[in-house]
Amino acid sequence: MRPSPKLTVLALACLLTACASKRGTPDNEPTIQSLAHREITVEKDQAIHTNEAQAIEAYRQFLAGAPNAAQRAEALRRIGDLEMDRADSASADPAATGAPDYRAAIARYQDYLKAYPADPNNDRVLYQLARAQEQSGDLDAALKTLTLLVRDFPATAVSDEAQFRRGELLFTARDYAQAEKAYAAVLSAGPGSPYHDRALYMQGWSQFKQGRLDDALQAFFGVLDLKLANVLDDDSLDASEGLTRADRELVEDTFRVTSLSLANLQGAEAIPALINTPLRRAYAFRVYEQLGELYIKQDRPKDAADTFTLFAQREPFDAQAPVLQARVIDIYERGGFANLALAAKKDYAARYGRHSAFRNAKPQAWARAQPLLKTHLAELARHHHAQAQQSKRSADYQEAVHWYREYLASFPADPQAAQNNFLLAELLFEDARFAEASIEYEKAAYDYPPHDKSADAGYAALLSHAQEQKKADAGQLPALQQASVASALRFARAFPADSRAGPVLTDAAEKLYALHDGDQAASVAQQVLDLQPPAAEAQRRVAWTVLAHTAFERGAFDVSENAYGEVLKLTAAKAPGRQELIERQAASVYKQGEQARSAGQLREAVAHFARVAEVAPQSAVRATAQYDAAAALIALKDWDAATRTLEDFRQRYPNNPLQADVSPKLAVAYIEQGQWGSAAGELERLATTSKDPKVARDALWQAAEYHEKVGARGPAAKAYERHLALTLAQRPTPLEPAIEARARLAHLAGQDGNTARELALMKDILQADQNGGAARTDRTRYLGATAALALAEPVAQAYRKVALVEPLQKQLKLKKARMEEGLKAYAVAADYGVADVSTAATFHIAALYRDFGKALMGSERPRKLSKVELEQYNVMLEEQAFPFEEKASELHEVNARRAAAGIYDEWVKRSFAALRELQPVRYGKNERSEGVVDAIR
Of 846, 747, 831, 721, which Cα lies nearest the Cα of 785? Predict the structure, then answer.
């Protein structure tokens, strides 16, 4: 029934009258005018506490009071579930004493099944009953219940779990045949079942217990296939890597029982038939390894060694073959089988030596095998060396020489190579092979870093040369003597302080230089170069070397550059130490650049630094020289040349440590040339590579500003976002930089028309400032106030969208609520006390009050009012709207009075304009500016 117009008017009048009444009136009723001062308190609800016992009692009361209720079955089942939960809780309570009692739950479920034997959902009840029986220790009853469950409800959702639990119970009862069937039922559901893997494992155990080892192995290998399918690679040394802890334990247990099964069959001979897929080949190593480990535990070392050997034979290119072959050697050595161990070492050397096929097939695994190969080669060499010394047979010497040479060829840089090279030379000398011995002695003396046998090897080389000359004919003698002299000079250069060097020393310059007598060494070296006929090439090379070194050490780098050039002319392209000489020549050129730079001759310095690339393009110092050239060009403000040099340096030496300083220097050069985008890019690169968070943040900020300078808002926003992320990651997080970055991002979002992003950032700014505590600054408060003002606008817009139309009561309530939200939002901004934000917030609050009054006056009139009623209604609306207009005038006057304090911004001006409409008598006059101040006062 539609209310009469009179009743509608009366209801509206009551509502509006209540809105217009003042706070504090005798009846204390809320009014529309009180919206600006209303505080709402939400009382917290009291939590409801209950437990299983209370719930059980409630269900029992329900059953007693409603014997015919449709929910009786559900209530009875719920009592059982609650009894189950209570027992489970007691079981999980560490403070509980005694075993948890599941008897009540069992009784309730049995009552339910008795009362509702045909319920289609009884599978759930049977499942819970079986669990309660199992928890209470009645395993026979649990098995019977589970059997009933899978028999009567074959399609139940818990079928897999029920069958698996049956299998466990049957296995525990040693009924392995029936357990196997139960696990088979689980497996029939397919690999998607969560019990599939464990069921397959336990099926294997059931078959193992029945003595069906071949069947059991098929099951166990099935488990391994499932668990290792995605965690093994060709070079893996840990078959369980990547598995969960439970899966790792399952795999380890499976390997153990697999080994037991194999040991009870044909041992390792039974394995190849089972390794019939690529996946199984990937973990075959573990199968052999675990079986071998079992044999070791059973004190069957020969079986273990045969198992490991079989794997290496059948899978010669498997990455793990060297690992098991090494175990064979270890087993024989520990067991005292010396001959077998020796043969195994030779086999290891043949399989994994430098010329082995395994090297090309498995380079990484081959590299891992080399440390042990090195040990075995050294042991083989010394074994046959000792045997040759006893037997004096040439064949034994040959065998020892073979292993020494194999060792040295395989491990030329090994720390023990020099010692073994010396032993090889000794062996050759003992066998009267003096030419070969001298070569090897010299290698031992000079081709390795200094060691305790260096000088002895050098002197023994001279003795070998002497023995060789005794046996030579006249035609061979000159060459042998030259070699002997060269060896003597070499000995003198290497061991000038050796007591045995005196008889062979002829190069005084070298000796003097070695004794650090630089001036005298340089003088003697010059005399050597002046000799006629010229001295031997080796002597002249030494002389030039002495001259170069001494000049370099006294800072005469132009002289040392020339001298090193002469040394290089006398040094073979592949001679040892040639690269070091090139580096020293390059260093001489570089040092000349440093001298020019120290003297302030930057152009000359740049020229010298550039010459390094011409003199020694492959030298290590070239990169430093190019970098220093760029630095000198920057000092000269030759930005273009500096930019080209640095860009070339970046491309040419990407891994040079000085790359970290390229970006800052390039940024400066680009800035000086006005290339803002390029400068921004370098600053971003600097932020990425810098390990100093502050440097990275500052670089990103500057990069963002340069992006903005060229109008690249997208890159600018990304730079600000990276800056913000670094700032937020800092602990403690600096408040002002974080808020400032958000403000910049909000500004860019606004320019892009992304209002949602802009408002979200404004919200972050406001929250960050309000939660800033002692870290707040004037700047953060200003940005917080600005953000609050921006966030208030959508709230005000939502208010304005509400029209006062029929149904008027509902619309009026909604508009009041929206207005209150708007007032609160603007109040947040005004409370900041920031001048230009406060004036704006005050203006908008006043505008809301004024708009509400206008909305009342413009609201839709109720229909079917008589002329008199309509007139009364309009008068009433005017009375209700007037307080809002008054409130608006008061707030605009607050803004107007701020002009006296020197605040006369846009919002103060707009408040004056509003006052000219609201109070035209007072503010509508065209007064002079000083008159305005008088009016405000």
Answer: 831
Residue 878 pLDDT class (50, 70, 90 cuts): confident
Question: Alpha-carbon distance 722 to 726, whole Å?
Answer: 6
SS3 654: coil
The pLDDT value recorded for residue 453 is: 92
d(CA 219, CA 207): 9
User: Could you tell me the pLDDT band of residue 925, with boundaries at 50, 70 and 90?
Assistant: low
Q: Contact 524/550 with Cβ under 8 angstroms?
A: no
Compute the distance between CA of residue 892 and CA of residue 844 in angstroms, rounded to an integer. Answer: 9
Write down how long the chain is.
Answer: 937
CATH number for the segment(s) 55-363: 1.25.40.10
What sign results for the dihedral spanned by CA atoms 764, 765, 768, 771?
Answer: negative
Q: Are 86 and 52 in contact, with CB atoms under 8 Å apart? A: yes
CATH 3.60.140.10 fits 572-657, yes or no: no
Q: For the chain, which residues make up each domain, given as ranges?
A: 55-363, 507-564, 572-657, 674-776, 805-936
Nearest in space to 695 (alpha carbons), one of 725, 668, 726 = 726
Model confidence, pTM: 0.46
pLDDT value at position 844?
A: 93
Measured at the alpha carbon of residue 261, what is the angle toward residues 256 and 264, in degrees to the nearest 5?
Answer: 130
Phi, psi of 320, rounded to the nearest 5 degrees: -95, 0
Comparing 507-564 with 572-657, is the CATH topology the same?
yes
Instruction: Say which CATH superfamily domain 674-776 falls into.
Output: Tetratricopeptide repeat domain (1.25.40.10)
DSSP 758-801: HHHHHHHHHHHHHT-GGG--HHHHHHHHHHHHHHHHHHHHHHHT
The first and second tokens of residue 783, run together, are 């940005």
Contact of 794 with 818, CB cutoff 8 Å: no
Helix (H) or strand (E) holding 284: helix 278-297
Which architecture, in CATH terms, is 507-564?
A: Alpha Horseshoe (1.25)
Sequential DSSP letters for 394-420: HHHHHHHHHHHHHHHHH-TTSTTHHHH
Helix count (H) and strand count (E) of the chain? 44, 0
